[in-house]
Amino acid sequence: MEKLGMNPVNSCPLTPLGFLERAATAFGGCRSVVYHDVVWTWRQTFRRCLRLASALVSLGVSRGDVVSALLPNVPAMYEMHFGVPMSGAVLNTINTSLDAPTVAVLLAHSGAKIIFADPAFLSLLADALRLLPAGGQPAPCVILVEDPYYKEEESTTSDEELAALTTYEMLLEMGDPEFAWVRPATEWDPMILNYTSGTTSAPKGVVNCHRGIFLITVNSLIDWAVPARPTFLWTLPMFHANGSSFPWGMAMVGGTNVCLRRVDAAEVYAAISRHDVTHLCASPMVLNVLANAPEGVRRLPAAGKVRVLTGGAQLPVAVLELAEAVGFQVSHGYGLSETGGLVVSCVWKEEWNKLPAPERARLKTRQGVRTPVMAEVDILDSETGRSVPRDGSTMGEIVLRGSCVMLGYLNDVKATEAAIRDDGWFHTGDIAVMHPDGYLEIRDRSKDVIVSGGDSISSMEVESALYGHPAVNDAAVVARPDEVSGEAPCAFVSLKEASTVTADELIAWSRERMPDFMAPKTVVFRTELPKTSTGKMKKYVLRNLANDMGPTRGSTEM
Amino acid sequence: MEKLGMNPVNSCPLTPLGFLERAATAFGGCRSVVYHDVVWTWRQTFRRCLRLASALVSLGVSRGDVVSALLPNVPAMYEMHFGVPMSGAVLNTINTSLDAPTVAVLLAHSGAKIIFADPAFLSLLADALRLLPAGGQPAPCVILVEDPYYKEEESTTSDEELAALTTYEMLLEMGDPEFAWVRPATEWDPMILNYTSGTTSAPKGVVNCHRGIFLITVNSLIDWAVPARPTFLWTLPMFHANGSSFPWGMAMVGGTNVCLRRVDAAEVYAAISRHDVTHLCASPMVLNVLANAPEGVRRLPAAGKVRVLTGGAQLPVAVLELAEAVGFQVSHGYGLSETGGLVVSCVWKEEWNKLPAPERARLKTRQGVRTPVMAEVDILDSETGRSVPRDGSTMGEIVLRGSCVMLGYLNDVKATEAAIRDDGWFHTGDIAVMHPDGYLEIRDRSKDVIVSGGDSISSMEVESALYGHPAVNDAAVVARPDEVSGEAPCAFVSLKEASTVTADELIAWSRERMPDFMAPKTVVFRTELPKTSTGKMKKYVLRNLANDMGPTRGSTEM
């Protein structure tokens, strides 16, 4: 028995790139990508990606080089996910809402050789390129991805500047549609580089390999029970953890990718009807926008036919209830850039359908259980390193183990060692509790926990109560220094249109729902709260504001 | 970039065993296994499998030991698929229709430490144990898997013999339901040993590892688009390539396993109705039995609701048409024990639905395209080693590459090297053509091709024409020596009840449908044709009969 093992046939590296080659045969004439009047078939997409890979190689790109993209969810962005790694390069999609200094930091850090850019982000890119350190590596070569559906008047780039650029379609023309794509030398070869976006100000470059991406892709399809040939609407930015691995997943199941430049509720509902969309992913923020769209806009072809996958640290019960009332069939999970997609999900139990709606929503807003490809997930007490009891109240850090976990952070040994520990766990920095039924629920990012007296307060628990108030649109709770207890909860709140509520009323509302020490001592009203492009609250901004206010005293302030 | 790679977190071995642990939480209260009045939940199945693993360890089973099972599709057979490898042992399921000398050969070859046996096969096993070579390794310890639903009168084992045996439930009682199951040291550790059954008389021991089984399991679920929580009827023997990996697949998606001791058309249709079965696998032979059941029996709750996956070298068009007329939604694929399940499948194209039924059936009886987890599939010319043209007529050998391919044959370096070649391909020995659309179609086992004059005749093509005749129940075509052309086709045919046809008529029927040289020169009628328990024709038996007849002369014989 022991003589048998890896051999020349079964050691062939796992990679999601072969899904596209297969799709060209198995789904050849089916629609692969749709964008306004642009309709590609899987046969065409395969050939276009081979052209892209071949052209990149002829531009001098070689194995392990970084190729970046500053693109919205247009067809070229989809093609990047195959064409770039098929050249042997590592794909780096950049969050398009970053500012020029940050983009410059990322480009300098990754050493990108080539960057594909949308006309809307050319001036951002030009600013970033000017900020690159002098005397460093050569600036990346810029390729313009033209878009006939982009409204030119928004552009700040001159016609001359535009004319000087190589375009994406010119590049594809150069490429060979019969190119023998570059297979990874091993399944551990880097394939993807994603910078973690902005809940802290120090971006880290997450590197995932072919094996990890292959596995998170099959994991996501099976966990969400994606059927054959779905129609997938691209409401989730592909620059966000590569759209949770679904670019590769759609090639595996022969789905149709419906592209969208931007998420606007009216456009989303129109696209759902026009293309018979069956599946979409949305952050809780986007789900909130869709669920709160005006009544005339908020129409689905049939209730329960559109399946929505949402994830993130916080899915407010109110948002979920609204979305389900509209008719979306919502699934909920949890993942990180470091895992390439969702690795925990709230597997739904039939018996829960009998419960009243608020109870159902409360159960579904829990993050859930590990997805099947992950080996293990646990919640560890940060002091003892032991599993927390399954009591639904003891907080600890979520740790993960399994093949979807990243290789590490690019050129950042310290950050890598802090996350990937010798104890065999990836430490997420997310604080959660384990319920008696084995479902975990996130309580906070570890740095967002408020320590009041000796007690830890989950900022999310307080926020959750605030979201339940009918006037509240958005809520974020952070620590503010407190003379008595060290820290006390401080709430930043934005209200729904034409709604009013006083700080007193919100504090009273909170005290009815939690122990006094957990209720906010301060409530600050804002028209809008600061968020990243993927809808995560920029709590460090609010924490700075709360610090600047100075310490609270004995009583509550408003 | 190059400093990043495998690390203590992402190098955790792939194994399907964790699916059960997850199922105990995610699907804890859902039905896992149903058999008459026995109903287990996933929580219970997990604990029973841990008891089994723990008891095996306490019996002295250690990592890499072989544990065998001689069982029909009863609940214990399902539990073997987790409990045995959870002890670190390698599971060897034995085809229950083998004879005692063959079972003895397998037990001696595998060195099984323990064998679980059904009462129906105790006397077979006793005979086999008596045939074990003297002075070899100790005979395996026999554990009796009692079955209250087995009719005792069929048994030939005495009450005393039965009373002396340890029973499965006694063993589970000994086990610890909180046992920390033995994880594989590496994902390449052997997990499964299956002996190839009987189309030749020399069984080979296929060894698959944890990684391979993990991957074929996800492959099968995605390729067949298995939804969450299906109800799966066990019509395919689990001893046949471990039921095409679906024991592990059901734990991954939280399905219900409906067990069946034997396949009887009336029982199958009754089980479908009683349990709301959504999915089942069937060999073409079993599909034939189901499709030809008496009208009163042949009833489905709703057309298209029961999905059937069938595979094997030959799916007659007539069988497929009948099965679809009954209302089964049939998918078709191809795999081998060496790949652990289906690795090629006939992905259906919507545009084909518009074609007339015979054309649809003709397209669906092709084996198809590679399933997504397999890296590559090709058809090679046996002389040049190059891909055959995509012309639908040039025959070559099917070769495969990818992670689902076995480690090798146990203690058989020669056979392993013949199959797993240094060219990086697994050579299947199956002969096929590649159609212009990239779908492959099997024409024969390489040893079944008939060489007439200079031409190769696919025995399956001739059989396919014979199956189209309304009187034909079963047909097998083999080479018979021929004075003029070396070999000529000789058909063995069984007829449907109350049908008649002459040899002359069948030869004329064939000649209308193929070139004269391909039509059978001899037709032999039999009440039944010799088959293996999984429905494969024992062609070597027929070939011997045809040889014994001596050579055909110039004209056809009947």
Automatic annotation (TrEMBL), chains A, B:
It catalyses: (E)-4-coumarate + ATP + H(+) = (E)-4-coumaroyl-AMP + diphosphate; (E)-4-coumaroyl-AMP + CoA = (E)-4-coumaroyl-CoA + AMP + H(+); (E)-4-coumarate + ATP + CoA = (E)-4-coumaroyl-CoA + AMP + diphosphate. Its EC number is 6.2.1.12. Keywords: Ligase, Magnesium. Its cofactor is Mg(2+). The lineage of its organism: Eukaryota, Viridiplantae, Streptophyta, Embryophyta, Tracheophyta. Transmembrane segments: none annotated. GO terms for molecular function: 4-coumarate-CoA ligase activity; trans-cinnamate-CoA ligase activity. It is an enzyme of class 6 (ligase). This is 4-coumarate--CoA ligase. Residues 461-536 form the AMP-binding enzyme C-terminal domain. CDD domains: ttLC_FACS_AEE21_like. GO terms for biological process: phenylpropanoid metabolic process. Belongs to the ATP-dependent AMP-binding enzyme family. Pfam families: AMP-binding, AMP-binding_C. Residues 20-410 form the AMP-dependent synthetase/ligase domain.
